[in-house]
Amino acid sequence: MFRGDDGASGNGKGDSQAQVDEAAAKKSSQAQIKITPEDGSNNASINNSAAVTVAKGTLTEVKMTTADGTAVAGEISADKKTWKPSAQLERATTYKLSATAEDSAGLAAHENASFTTVAPDNSFIGTFTPDDGTTVGVGMPVSINFDKAITNRAEVQKGITVSTTGGQEVVCHWFNDNRMDCRPDEYWKEDSTVTLKLALDGVEGAEGVVGVQQKTVTFKIGRNQVTYVDAKTKQMKITQDGKTVRSIPISAGAPENKTYEGQMVISEKFKETRMNGATVGFTDDDGKGEYDIKDVPHAMRLSTSGTFIHGNYWGAKSIFGSVNTSHGCVGMSDTKGANDPSTPGAWFFDNSIVGDVVVVQNTGDRTIAPDNGLNGWNMSWEQWKAGSAV
Asked: Whole-angstrom Cα distance, residue 301 to residue 365?
């Protein structure tokens, strides 16, 4: 009998607690908030993290801050069902999120989470050229330099696509674990548009190292301009669509410092720049540069190792078209200060864009290495395709 009383008493207490829980549930919001990534996550994506969604309700407020309290801008969608940050997140940063939503009865629900994005040591990015929205010459490859050595080349290459409205097949070639260039068989078709898509977020480039980039880049191919430098005749001709538009006398590398031969792509342009022989191995007995000219006019880079095509104001006007005198560059007549538009150096500079091709011939030197600058055109199409990982 006592047991029966105890049992009845216990059931009564259980019923009472259940009723309390039920009553509390009826007073709680039906809104269900979900924050991704999960609370406490590490190595979170800087692109796809920090999403807030709600079911059975609408979002009324979302706050996101870094660990030190700096606010992160974001926006609730028009239907008030989702929220995302307005900009890409930073690497190796801890973020805190708090979200509030209401159900149809106006009852509020709350959710909080904290996560840390992937650290630089555990991630890689690719620095690419050309830039988004630019117009470049027909020889401009897509060149990507990775800040970590890539051992899973195939997986990374699968996450990168390059396409063109010109209808050309585009193939990517690995020069080494840190550099991959992409180009078609022949120069890009003029007036076409090239699109580079990087879908590398979460792609493992090497053990414990994942990609973080997720973006699309487009650039336009300009007119078809190819310049031919003949070191034997000391003349160069500038062609557009295969037709010569101008010839300019030049002075190429002297016999003891021949200019590389081959197809070279203009990668940078400087109205004026310094050229110091010491930086490219030309030094005197005292270790100083054989030359140090602080205001070389109208200089355009053709190689990483220091080959330029540029204006020359210090040489006698008589050398252009008659003798090769340089340390390996291609020079044209110009004036000090780079402000005379009538000079050959100024004309060529003004009529050239990054990505234009300069073909150097008859110097007697070897062909420039394909990875010395943006000069992969010096490989056959078969050699180029052999360097693809997919």
From this structure: 19
Helix, coil or strand: residue 369: coil
Q: Where in the chain is the domain with CATH 2.60.40.3710?
A: 121-222
Residue extent(s) of CATH 2.60.40.3780 domains in the chain: 29-118
Per CATH, the number for 121-222 is 2.60.40.3710
Half-sphere exposure of 258 (CA within 13 A, CB side): 16
Nearest alpha carbon to residue 126 among 229, 242, 209: 209
Give the model confidence (pLDDT) of 307-346 as tens digits: 999 999 999 999 999 999 998 999 999 999 999 999 999 9
Q: What is the pLDDT of residues 356-368, one digit of tens each?
A: 999 999 999 999 9
Alpha-carbon span 152 to 150, nearest angstrom: 6
Give the pTM.
0.80
Domain 29-118 in this protein, CATH class: mainly beta
Question: Which residues are marked as active site?
Answer: 310, 329
Topology at the third CATH level for domain 225-378: L,D-transpeptidase catalytic domain-like (2.40.440)
Contact 221/184 with Cβ under 8 angstroms?
A: no
d(CA 330, CA 314): 14
The number of C-alpha atoms within 13 Å of 134 and in the hemisphere containing its C-beta is 14
